Amino acid sequence: MEKILIIEDELSIAELERDYLELNHYEADIAATGQEGLECLKANSYRLVLLDLMLPDMDGYEVCRKIREVSEIPIIMVTAKNEDIDMIRGLGRGADDYIAKPFNPNQLIARVKAHIARYDRLVSTGQNKDEDIRIGDLLIQPVTRKVFVNNEERTLTAKEFDLLLFMASSPNQVFSKEHLLEQVWGFEFYGDVTTVTVHIRRLREKIEKDPSKPEYIGTVWGVGYRFKR
Amino acid sequence: MEKILIIEDELSIAELERDYLELNHYEADIAATGQEGLECLKANSYRLVLLDLMLPDMDGYEVCRKIREVSEIPIIMVTAKNEDIDMIRGLGRGADDYIAKPFNPNQLIARVKAHIARYDRLVSTGQNKDEDIRIGDLLIQPVTRKVFVNNEERTLTAKEFDLLLFMASSPNQVFSKEHLLEQVWGFEFYGDVTTVTVHIRRLREKIEKDPSKPEYIGTVWGVGYRFKR
DNA sequence: GAAATTTGTAATAACTATATAATGTTTTGG
DNA sequence: CCAAAACATTATATAGTTATTACAAATTTC
To answer: How much is the pTM?
Structure first.
């Protein structure tokens, strides 16, 4: 079972978090202080840390930094709403995401899942994530960020390239627009999903022979898009 | 898995280094003497060497020299005092980098990663560190630190040259400003990324025919810069 | 230790990518 | 075959990035 570590001094909040996690088939340990949290980390193997910003013994940043000295485990900071300026500081210091109290339980679970998945991808693909991808007449070079169709370069913008690379890294897998927004645009981005539609359109314009009959980027009606191999 | 060789007589430090490396998905062997280290190198295939300056049988320089007789593998020297570093740097004995005890684990890992990546780049481009680089009308001489455009010398400052050489060593690869800061300015440097922008500007001024339409140093919008071949 | 050069920073101008909205088209289920 | 939903297409304003300039701080040179 996947274990999550909750570092939070207010027991009521910690238990609330644990309840939601357990409802979603995670197991959760609670540590009331930063020190206790660090000890739990040493003694156990967790998939993710939920870290309160305000702790009795040391602040969340400090804990975050100490965790990062030994591990790349995903860290989600939990903060009170009015502290959002400082949240950015937290992200700069090694946290992967932040969520404001009071939080939406679904969002919490969604983020936990997403970060665990991201981490796994990072680790598992760590070796060949820079390797060229060749599919049909299409060549994608992650290192140079260049894309060729029939050995002819097509210049993509940053987002276009990121989107293409993400999809082409898992060919034939269907991604919902929401999923693509989350993975390519990032968790902070709360825009409209039509953004994805438009980007898919522009991508097709650049890499497909006939954008209205795409051979690389397929539409899966009612579900999302897939990169066909 | 990537293997690292630790040559260090103090077991507690060696084990600390190994722990950090293993947390970051490296495998590490420990050798307590220079002689033992050299034997490990013969018997195994490593990606990098962490080399203590003070060893019981021979000093780090000696070991370094002996390694260099047979291999161009990245070597990071680990030294006791900060002051020693400046002295060592001046000597230029073939180590690729230096780090002082007590070291920051993140920095250690960051440097290990960076040097392995750099080594791979050099190998894949089939280029020796000191070999001249010729691209179009541009000639870069690492040994003399001179740069010519159409056989006409352009005098660059130290940073300008380092930046140009770094980028030109991996043509077409896209580097973010953060990456350039880290690699060219060093890990200790915590300045603003606009510094990179300005240096790029100055470089273009000196080597491009029309700096506003650069043919060597290209801008990759939203990502960084690339040296075009 | 003064002068000259290099380097870093800050301010603002110029530019590009991209999000969004509006409108048109295709698909699907009843 | 119709209506509703999902997607495609297009145009545009804006947010975000980079270029440029000027200046201050640091470093090197003499």
So the answer is: 0.73
